[in-house]
Amino acid sequence: DGGITQSPKYLFRKEGQNVTLSCEQNLNHDAMYWYRQDPGQGLRLIYYSQIVNDFQKGDIAEGYSVSREKKESFPLTVTSAQKNPTAFYLCASSQTGTSGTDTQYFGPGTRLTVL
Amino acid sequence: GDSVTQMEGPVTLSEEAFLTINCTYTATGYPSLFWYVQYPGEGLQLLLKATKADDKGSNKGFEATYRKETTSFHLEKGSVQVSDSAVYFCALRKAAGNKLTFGGGTRVLVKP
Question: Bigger pLDDT: B5 or B9?
């Protein structure tokens, strides 16, 4: 089955530790995205990548880093510089990154809790 | 900047009732409009979309019409089921952009 997988589903970390969230897609999509969702709020864009080895900051990139070494993978690292990292993180992908009509498909999400 | 405004929830309905969730947007140009649904503990699923004015998106009994004159994209369903209980997000995407701009979400609870 084609789709987007995110792992793990739940993640607990101590304050001050970096943590990496995994996102893999087998849809052969060029573009991938990371969003953050806080309780009762909409999603906010952290980073996106239109093509391998290229990525751009979204609205709330501070304290996060990404890489795009392979088309199917777009891991997100939450660094200790992120002041309030506890949130639900959603990865998405779309066929291209340049068409406004492209549908973005979402993974199941990772809930990160920093203790 | 671009923005999407949704009615605040929660919206509580009885089964078979009519559902409307209001969504209005502010954006330059001609964005595409989307409704996504999120079931508890899950990611978002695309419910329907419309890419130009007067387009009607529909899926699973839900409908929404792109109204450029009122900058709205209200979601409707004629007869809801308990399984429709979820959070619904309205979103827009510019014609040549990567970013989805989301509304705050509307939680819907359907009681038997």
Answer: B5
Interface of A with B in 10-39 (CB under 8 A): 31, 33
pLDDT tens figures, A21-37: 999 999 999 999 999 99
Sequence-separated (6 or more) residues with CB below 8 Å from residue A79: A18, A63, A64, A65
Which residues 6+ apart lie within 8 Å of A27 measured at CB? Answer: A2, A3, A4, A93, A95, A105
Backbone angles phi, psi at B28, to 5 degrees: -85, 155
Q: Please say whether the beta carbons of A76 and A68 come within 8 A.
A: no
Q: Nearest residue of B to residue A95 by CA position?
A: B98
Q: How far is B1 from chain A (nearest CA, A)?
A: 12
Angstrom CA distances, B112 to A96, B10, B62, B106, B108, stand at 42, 16, 19, 20, 13
Residue type, B18: F
Give per-residue pLDDT as tens, B13-43.
999 999 999 999 999 888 999 999 999 888 8
Q: Mean pLDDT score of chain A, rounded to an integer? A: 91
Interface mutation target, options A103, A111, A113, chain B, most CBs of B under 10 Å: A103
